Amino acid sequence: MLNKPIDQIVITDGVVTGVKSEGQIASCKMVIGDPSYFPNKVKKVGQVIRIICIMDHPIPSTGDVDSVQIIIPQKQVNRKSDIYIGMISNSHFFAAKGKYIAIISTTVETDQPEHECEPALKLLGPILDKFVSIVDTYEPTDDGTKDKCFVSTSYDATSHFETTCLDVMDIYRRITGKEVDLTPKEPEEEQ
After folding, report:
1. Residues 114-149: pLDDT tens digits?
2. Angle formed at CA 84 by CA 157 and CA 58, multiple of 5 degrees
3. For residue 3, what is the DSSP state?
């Protein structure tokens, strides 16, 4: 049931038993989803601003590289949160030839979120166009072990996916009761 709307999470005796979409029910033993699927199981914890900037040049003073990640430390700009900049180009088939896309993101701390991104915007040089979005962020209100509805947290402002990976490992632990073991397996000895 890919690319279908979710009409209902079917709960029987307090535990998920299926997902209803367009009159059909897909049976399941658990559901894993982001907060948008579970508005009754999450709480708002903040907001993130993202500014997508289209440029015709790489970010100045970065050696004309095709991609770069810059983190402006919170203490350098008198904030509680870092400001993230990721830039990619045509070499990644992400932008038209001769164009560069920079994405700025940070956790909103004031009632002027775009102004909070000024230190990052100043690093970019001339911007052809920009698109600003501010989204609420959520986290689950329970661990999902009772009803088998496992909810992730919202994407935060980080650009390097560390917190997303930690969230995935946390969901794994909640589901299995074990920590993720990424230790390489020893090759089996030949007999």
Report:
1. 999 999 999 999 999 999 999 999 999 999 999 999
2. 135
3. T
Helix (H, G, I), strand (E, B) or coil at 60: coil
Q: Which amino acid is residue 183, in one-letter code?
A: T
> With 60 as the cut, is the pLDDT of residue 191 above it?
no
Mean pLDDT of the chain: 94
Cβ atoms < 10 Å from Cβ of 164: 15
Mean pLDDT over 156-171 rounds to 92
Q: Look at residues 16, 17, 21, 23 and name the one whose alpha carbon lies nearest to residue 2.
A: 21
Q: Which CATH number fits domain 45-136: 3.40.50.300, 3.90.550.10, 3.30.519.10, 1.10.3720.10?
A: 3.30.519.10
pLDDT for position 187: 82
Pairing of strands 8-12, 15-21: antiparallel
Which phi and psi (to 5°) does residue 124 adopt? -75, -25
Specify burial of residue 115 (Cβ count, 10 A radius: 0-12, 13-18, 19+): exposed
